[in-house]
Backbone:
């Protein structure tokens, strides 16, 4: 990634920050329900909006969520196969 | 493999004898397959490991996770599928262990070193004739100066250190928290408050997200 691109991403991240946010623990508490809703294509409710916002703001939680989805995907493959 | 409802999972795991053993075997098998899929798919740091070692790693993570699942059965609220909830715990175990192993030899000073607040960003190394047009280059320098002033003037020392480690170096928040003798939630709040302050400062200088996107339109 070029220096310019990194700088742009940093500024985007800062300027997109929302004042209100839940903690990482609060996100973790609800993220299983969020994953099921996402995979089922359900409309997220207010709590799930807050989970989604935190995942947009927190790289750590986002990376963990991506890993979580892969674990779920792996389990599903075996059930289908 | 039979498909259990949430209630059946809880009943079987709380039962005695073969009913419980069967549920544990089933859960272990599912989680291990999911974990192996993840370890094979996404972890470039594990790409050189033989399959047998990945299998053992997956099994170890899942075993630790099952202990946590059994200890926390009463906290399962039934808002998701039981296997989803259990997978969440297993993922947390795996991510934590892998992260701890990756960063164990690094101090916070090393992670934030180089003597500047934003080292790789403060030195724009694009010559105007090779990179962006002169006008865009000047605008980018202006943005950089505003950001540096904001970091220097509105953030506390701890906010600066946390933000630098987290955003510039991409260090996982757990690792920064441990080295700053705090916890993940408190550190996330530190980083978040820093970002809110910087956002306010940058916007007070009349700069918006739309302007930034325009200046970096060719990136």
Residues:
């Amino acid at each position: 990634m070029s220096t310019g691109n990194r700088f742009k991403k940093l500024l985007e991240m800062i300027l997109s920050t929302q004042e209100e946010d839940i903690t990482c623990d609060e996100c973790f508490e609800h993220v299983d329900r969020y994953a099921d809703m996402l995979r089922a294509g359900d409309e997220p409710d207010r709590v799930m909006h807050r989970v989604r916002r935190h995942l947009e703001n927190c790289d750590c939680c986002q990376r963990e969520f991506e890993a979580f989805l892969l674990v779920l995907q792996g389990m599903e493959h075996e059930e289908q196969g | 493999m039979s498909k259990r409802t949430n209630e059946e999972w809880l009943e079987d795991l709380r039962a005695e004898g073969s009913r419980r053993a069967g549920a544990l075997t089933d859960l272990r098998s599912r989680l291990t397959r999911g974990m192996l899929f993840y370890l094979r798919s996404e972890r470039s740091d594990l790409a050189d490991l033989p399959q047998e070692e990945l299998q053992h790693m997956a099994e170890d993570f899942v075993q630790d996770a099952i202990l946590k699942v059994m200890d926390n059965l009463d906290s399962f609220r039934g808002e998701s599928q039981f296997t989803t909830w259990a997978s969440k715990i297993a993922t947390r175990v795996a991510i934590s262990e892998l992260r701890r192993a990756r960063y164990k030899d690094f101090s916070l000073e090393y992670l934030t070193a180089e003597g500047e607040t934003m080292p790789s960003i403060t030195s724009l190394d694009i010559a105007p004739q090779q990179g962006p047009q002169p006008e865009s280059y000047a605008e980018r320098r202006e943005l950089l100066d505003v950001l540096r002033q904001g970091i220097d003037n509105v953030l506390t020392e701890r906010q600066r250190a946390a933000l630098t480690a987290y955003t510039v170096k991409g260090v996982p928040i757990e690792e920064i928290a441990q080295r700053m003798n705090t916890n993940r939630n408190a550190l996330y709040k530190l980083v978040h408050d820093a970002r809110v302050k910087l956002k306010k400062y940058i916007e007070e200088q009349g700069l918006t997200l739309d302007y930034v996107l325009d200046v970096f339109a060719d990136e």
